[in-house]
């Protein structure tokens, strides 16, 4: 089994004052009040946290590559006010671990600071699971150091294709940030020098939002290249410019 996914989560915390008020106002049961409170006061915050930390968890996953981990396909790291240090659960290959995390401070931080705090939470969670399972930490340390070295920038090329007649290449260039994912077409000459970069799609910073656009990349002529979505029913065309004929 390989470790394929890392996720930071903000688990729901019951606010007794709020739920008691809901019970009083709506004349409902405690369980019903908790559901109402979650929907009104926590669900969006949890989703926002997941989106804002995905650029770092996705980067860590990609740089780690295939890490063989017996009985572990995912590490779910719960970011909480008070972590239970020895609480590490494994259910069907998903390890759940808690780390102490100041969400209020995180929410007020700059984008750069959010990346650093997210990476540190990832590292702490992985470290705890690794110690319990006696995993070799070399690969994890290398990934952590690499992310720091590249200044927490999550950029990569999804796919590339060559145009032999014009000695050009086209690449789908991905930029994954805290609050957005940009998909661009990058054109290079035969020496690998960038001719131009054109953004064609801006999406939510999550695979479920942007992966549907990544079907195939093709040259439609010597002067244009297109990205076609997975359903093959939408196309983004870019014309080559700023080059000699």
Question: How would you sum up this structure, described in words?
Answer:
This protein folds into two domains: 2-149, no CATH class; 154-239. The protein is α+β, with helices and mostly antiparallel strands and 245 residues long. The protein is 37% helix and 33% strand. Strands 2-4-6-5 form a four-stranded mixed sheet. α1 crosses α2 (30-64), α2 (30-64) packs across α4 and α2 packs across α5. The longest helix has 35 residues, at 30-64. The protein has six helices and 13 strands. The protein is globular, with a radius of gyration of 22 Å. The mean pLDDT is 94.
Order of helices and strands: EEHHEEEEHHHEEEEHEEE
Percentage beta strand: 25-35%
Helical run tally: 6
Specify the helix fraction band. 25-40%
Principal-axis shape = globular
The number of distinct structural domains comes to 2
Largest sheet: 4 strands, mixed
Strand order of the largest sheet: 2-4-6-5
TL;DR?
The protein has 245 residues and is an alpha+beta fold.
Describe the secondary structure blueprint for this structure.
Blueprint: E1 2-3, E2 5-9, H1 16-26, H2 30-64, E3 67-68, E4 74-80, E5 88-91, E6 94-100, H3 103-107, H4 111-133, H5 138-149, E7 154-163, E8 168-176, E9 181-188, E10 194-203, H6 207-210, E11 216-221, E12 224-228, E13 235-239
List keywords for this structure.
245 residues; alpha+beta; 4-stranded antiparallel sheet; 13 strands
């Amino acid at each position: 089994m390989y470790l394929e996914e890392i996720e930071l989560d903000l688990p729901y915390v019951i606010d007794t004052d709020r739920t008691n008020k809901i019970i009083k106002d709506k004349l409902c049961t405690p369980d019903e009040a908790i559901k109402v409170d979650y929907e009104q006061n926590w669900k969006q915050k949890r989703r926002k946290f997941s989106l804002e930390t995905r650029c770092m968890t996705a980067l860590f996953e990609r740089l780690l590559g295939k890490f063989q981990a017996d009985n572990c396909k995912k590490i779910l790291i719960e970011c909480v006010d008070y972590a239970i240090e020895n609480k590490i659960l494994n259910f069907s290959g998903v390890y759940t671990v808690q780390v102490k995390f100041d969400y209020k401070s995180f929410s007020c931080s700059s984008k750069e600071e959010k990346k650093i705090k997210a990476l540190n939470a990832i590292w702490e969670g992985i470290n705890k699971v690794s110690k319990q399972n006696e995993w070799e930490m070399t690969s994890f340390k290398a990934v952590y150091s690499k992310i720091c070295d590249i200044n927490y920038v999550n950029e990569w090329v999804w796919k590339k294709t060559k145009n032999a007649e014009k000695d050009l290449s086209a690449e789908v260039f991905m930029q994954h940030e805290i609050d957005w994912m940009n998909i661009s077409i990058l054109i290079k000459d035969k020496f690998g020098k960038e001719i131009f970069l054109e953004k064609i799609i801006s999406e939510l910073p999550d695979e479920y939002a942007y992966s549907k656009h990544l079907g195939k990349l093709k040259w439609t002529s010597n002067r244009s290249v297109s990205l076609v979505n997975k359903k093959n029913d939408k196309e983004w065309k870019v014309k080559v410019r700023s080059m000699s004929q």
